Amino acid sequence: MRIKADTIGSGYDTVLSAWTGDAGSLSLVACNDDYSGLQSQITFAATAGTTYYFMVADCCGNGGGGGGSLVFSVEEIQAAVNDNFANAISIGALPYSNTQDYGTSSAEAGEPSSCFTPVNTVWYSYTATATGSITASTNSYYSGIAAYTGSSLANLSQVGCRGVYSGQALTFVAEQGTTYYFQVEANGTSQLTFQLKVAPDPIAQFYYSPGDPSSYDTISFYGYYSSDPAGAGISAYAWDFGDGTTATGDSTSHRYAADGDYTVQLTVRTPDGRSDSTSQVVQVRTHDVSIDRLNVPATARVGQTIGINVYLKNTRYPENVQVTLYKSVPSGFVQVGYSTQLVKVSTTGQTTRYSFNYTVTSDDLAVGKITFKAVAQLTEHTDALPADNELLSNPVKVSS
After folding, report:
1. Contact residues for 92 (Cβ-Cβ < 8 A; gap 6+)
2. What is the rounded CA–CA span in Å between residue 145 and residue 247?
3. Do 115 and 79 meet the contact criterion of CB atoms below 8 Å apart?
4. CB of 225 closer than 8 Å to CB of 206
5. Which of 267, 284, 265 is nearest to 276 (CA)?
6. How far is CA 124 from each of CA 111, 149, 231, 335, rounded to the nearest angstrom?
7. What pLDDT, in 10s, does the model give residues 157-167?
8. Rounded distance between C-alpha atoms, residue 293 and residue 309, angstroms
9. Measured over all CA atoms, what is the biggest interatomic distance in the chain, rounded to whole angstroms?
10. How many helices (H) and strands (E) are present in the chain, helices listed first?
11. CB-based burial, 171-180: b 16+ in 10 Å, e otherwise
């Protein structure tokens, strides 16, 4: 039988242990301190005909009167109905869920050890009605699950195993007509719920960068955000970039030769063969404007307002472009104005003009010349070739 002994209800901090043997040569069977508050509880498998000795101690030398009122209880506890392999609970239709008190369960003689050592185990059996992936799980991070085929403890063959502290489900392909036995280890957890269900499909997900690519960009694609709710993980990633090229791997990169709308598809697959696909339309647009010229007068006087004209070329898409004008100072450049307007597309060499006015100051006279700098920036997109978005003027000679 299984025995439970405890000191719950006692008036002091106890330690409880059980022993076999004779005085001077005792062997420890079980020991516990502080199972419930300051009180103790032990459970163990008792063998018929064996004498067990229980020792109750005042814990930890914590002072006081050396003890107090003791409440000591011993009782037989009934093991879970499926504690042994021969009494495995038969599972019918899926999904299935069952809760057992593992505090009364134990490992029987000959029970297999796989990725965990059996201590508090129960058994379930399931005969697959169709071939497909199934997933077994519990509601505890600390538990373990092993699956076997066979007909007795002596001839079991392991199908899969998830060790204690893994927190993962066990997923595998069940063959129609085959009976599978599930060994569930509680690892000290009392109430534990075992679940068995048809494995759900994985979830394919990806993102890419940059988000507004051009034909000059190498786009990075990331598929490792995909997941498998059944816990088997993703074993394969297959990419279709929509332009006749493909790739594999949880992350990859690709460059498109021309602008267009490309449907990118990612298909993920699990080790047991489940799969899922997802797709996104990647819009490749090569946005590019350039500063064609920056016109300034050759000379200017202090107090004179001069005109500065910036001319932009655009051969691809209509763009809203901000042009910022700077002037030179001894420490670098300072902003003197900006303007935003629509730059239309022209394939015949026509340009869009930005006009600025600037009044020459005595500080400019002190330097003796002014160099203007124009910087063009797209307001809604990223310029694919930004090197030609900045231009310096010829120096303007300043006189009094």
Report:
1. none
2. 36
3. no
4. yes
5. 267
6. 14, 12, 20, 77
7. 999 999 999 88
8. 8
9. 121
10. 1, 32
11. bbbbeeeeeb
Residue closest to 251 by CA, chosen among 234, 269, 237: 237
pLDDT tens digits along 147-188:
999 999 999 999 999 999 988 899 999 999 999 999 999 987
Q: How many CB atoms lie within 10 A of CB 307?
A: 11
Round the average pLDDT of the chain to a whole number and report it.
Answer: 94
DSSP 21-38: S-TTS-EEEEEEE-SBTT
Asked if 291 and 376 touch (Cβ cutoff 8 Å), the reply is yes
The 10s digit of each residue's pLDDT in 232-276 is 999 999 999 999 999 999 999 999 999 999 999 999 999 999 999
Note the pLDDT tens digit of each residue in 67-121: 789 999 999 887 788 999 999 999 999 999 999 888 778 899 999 998 999 998 9
Q: Which helix (H) or strand (E) holds 372?
A: strand 372-378
Distance CA 47, CA 45 (A): 7
Residue with tokens 């016109």: 295
Q: What's the rounded Cα separation, in Å, for the pair 385 and 249?
A: 30
Sheet holding 170-174, edge to edge: 96-101, 191-198, 132-138, 170-174
* pTM across the whole model: 0.74
Question: Are the C-beta atoms of 197 and 95 separated by less than 8 Å?
Answer: yes
Least confident of 29-38, 98-107, 226-235, 389-398: 98-107
Give 246-249's long-range contacts (Cβ < 8 A, gap of 24+): 249/223
Give the tens place of pLDDT for each residue, 321-371: 999 999 999 999 999 999 999 999 999 999 999 999 999 999 999 999 999
Compute the distance between CA of residue 294 and CA of residue 311 in angstroms, rounded to an integer. Answer: 6
CA dist list (Å): 187 to 107, 116, 169, 184: 11, 9, 16, 9
The H or E element containing residue 365 is: helix 362-367
77 contacts 43 by C-beta, under 8 angstroms:
yes
> Strands of 251-254's sheet, edge to edge?
207-209, 219-222, 251-254
Does 318 sit behind a cis peptide bond, omega within 30 degrees of 0 on the bond before it? no
